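Reopening this ticket.

The earlier resolution said the output was attached, but the attachment link was broken on my side. Pasting everything inline this time so it's all in one place.
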Amino acid sequence: MLQALSISNLTKTYANNMKALSSVNLSVEQGDFFALLGSNGAGKTTMIGIICSLLNKTSGEVLVLGKDQSKHLNEVKRMIGLMPQEFNFNPFEPVEEILVNQAGYYGIDRSSAKAQAKILLKRMELWDKRLDMAKSLSGGMKRRLMLARALIHQPKILILDEPSAGVDVEIRRSMWKFLRELNDQGMTIILTTHYLEEAESLCRNIAILDKGKIVEQTSMKKLLARVSQQVLILESIEQLPNILPTLDFKIERLDAYSIQVSLNDVNISQALIALSENKIEIEHVRSAQNRLETLFLRLTSKAG
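Inline output:
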């Protein structure tokens, strides 16, 4: 099967002899929702810059849908849409014009660009703001504008660098829903994020980068299966007692109505029964969503 992205022995050494990437090998299947994770300084931004032709590699090979980036630069650029972490549009330009002008860089005529911009701005709930200067938008609106701009030329691969940084939960969830729709329609999406809950919720496969090297590449399901301990947040019907009972699993108070439990040899049903016997009736159960964080810390240098 043709890979959306295939990277072989990719190395990047900067002028000060700092090696940002060291013989990286990475593959992403077409139609995947892929997480690229790593601590600050791990090399994620450098890798994205090289994939998007914003940085020159020192050595190695980058293939995008089978096309060698070095030999088919313009074609490869058209295949990729990038939503960077930092706002980098002209704040004194109207919202609609930002999209239309971006489309022009890909040779899209103005009438076609305006039609596509209308579709995207309506989907992003920005249509009513189309004539406003970008500087007047809220932070969440600016994020949605960045996403619309990355999609204006209808790329086959979408790369998202911290797409929901600084936005509230409601906007983040709305963005997740839209990204899932794009992926369901066949778009390959590569995501970097510091919200590990985001990666766990959205992505099917994952690579973890540490000190310029890939330390793990596998499916999200297989990676999470390595964590035997299940951590849950339980919300009580009534206010919790001041002193929590000592049971066969770890309990930690979060607030007056919430506890976090860590289950090893005890399943959730047994835990709920034990709590009920101690007059703690649970109304709601949800995952603490820290399984990926546990593994991430274990696999990177931060663990040591």
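Reporter confirms the inline version is readable. Residues 169-184 form the longest helix (16 residues). The chain has a mean pLDDT of 89.
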